[in-house]
Amino acid sequence: MINLELSEQLVGLEQLMRSVASGVMRPISRKYDKQEHDVPVELKVLDRRPKGPAAAAAPKAEKKPGADEPKPAGKRPVKNGTNMATVVSIEQMCWGDVGLMLSIPGAGLGNAAINAVATPAQKERFGHLYASMAITEPASGSDSGSIGTTARLDGDEWVLDGEKIFVTAGGRCEAVVVWATLDKTKGKSAIKSFVVQKGTPGMELVKLEHKLGIRASDTATILLSNCRIPKDNILGKADIATGDKRGAFGQVMQTFDNTRPGVAAMAIGCARAALDLTSELLQKDGVTLNYDKPLWDSSAIEAELYRMEADWDAARLLTLRAAWMADNGEPNSMEASMAKAKAGRVGNAITLRCVELCGSLGYGEETLLEKFARDSKILDIFEGTQQIQQLIVARRLLNKSSAELK
To answer: What ranges in 248-382 are assigned the alpha helix state H?
Structure first.
């Protein structure tokens, strides 16, 4: 039976991450929003990457927050583990600042791919690196299967050619996990992921984007031109197995089942920050929420806040469910997309409405409300847009393949 009540360990983690958000992130939030491409040096204290040759073994030895919770005899134990701990941590840190959370050293999306599909030897080599993920291209956005960057084998080296855009942490990372195709005629089964370490000849950081929100996080364009990497830098197998849903492409895509609840948690944390600040500002004007009072007996502003709280709670419960399923080995692709779609849409709507409710205090830089609204927009877009998530849910409900339902 599913249980979304946080364990004692997760409540402790939640409190710890809130203290990090309020003590480390909030004080520098506006600073790095204005100094867009500066590296947030204050975040170095949060770098918990294992160092040295034992890097790959360290995560296995480390006790993750969230303990197994026993069930009655004869039933499989219910586990609140790494995924639940991750969404709880992300939610609280994004209550502090989404862009700064994305700038924590060693917490790149490429690290998730390495952990998911790398061999033990590759984890030994790359496990200690700060890795970003390079998927999107000028002509390939939400459809990850239409990638045009190529990889060809030349002796003992892979040669990569192509352009990648919107690479989160692409300027600050130490390695980039690049998606490329071995044969454009073979479709998704020919798409593989490759680890390219920074400083490799042929990989060029072209530019850093100026953005609406999450300005503390750098977003890069990377050009690959005759970029040569060792033969064993490919993640997964090099053979093209058509129709193999659990091939290299499928495996890396499945990492999104774990990371999409994390993006949903970003939206939830940002929306929670906006709701908390709005309630605080409105309380000074005599607007106090009373959850025992019926909706019809509330003011228009109070009723609006109640509705937003209900939407927020629904998004959070969907996110916890998706994380719980991942921890317990249950397929959660549909639930991860549902959580990401709901939280992304609701998070952006809540932050924008909070700006409106607070008038000049919401629009100006005297408070962080306008920043929360700007930061929230990308959370409905990256890691799969709202429309892509709804398409994934529809395919699961109707039992259709990507070719049957586009």
So the answer is: 248-254, 256-283, 300-327, 333-357, 359-363, 369-377
